[in-house]
Amino acid sequence: WASTNGNGTVERFTTGAALTTLASGLYSVSKAVSDGTTAIWLGSSSAGIYSLTKAPLAGGAATALYSAPAMTYLGDLATDGTNVYFSQSALPGSTNAIVRVPLAGGAATSLAVPAAGSTSRVLVDATNVYYVVRMTDAQGYCTGSSINKVPKAGGAVTTLWSRSGPCVYAFAQSATQLFFDQDIDLRRIDK
Fold it and tell me: Is the pLDDT of residue 94 over 60?
């Protein structure tokens, strides 16, 4: 299991053992996940350029998988052990998308590009990528959210749920359902 400790370090935590440092000296680390053998994390440079990086949990060199365009934020990520899926949100004039990058390295592929709003939370199962699109007003306040799915291989996007009002922040899954919050309500929908 990989974690960030808030000071530009990615560490592996094993119950009953000391923390193992996988990468350090990083400017910022915002999210980390693992497929059981590899730690994958989102980080940014002092210039605000976001990147996706991996390193073996057993130790070894870190490898860059993706570097985001300027003025672009990488917000959430998930892996299925073969690919990494992440949300890419941008300032006006840039692209918001759900992106897939092979864990072994290779070209990034945009799986979904919403017409409006910014992509955020990401989950993956054997078949699909599930993600949240948040709508905001000119002041940045949330005006609504949608939960969508797209096949992992690419294809048509299906909107599973959409509402105006508070944004979705918490997002989890079981084998057949998605769970999320909207304001103080906990909701669930079928996949």
Answer: no
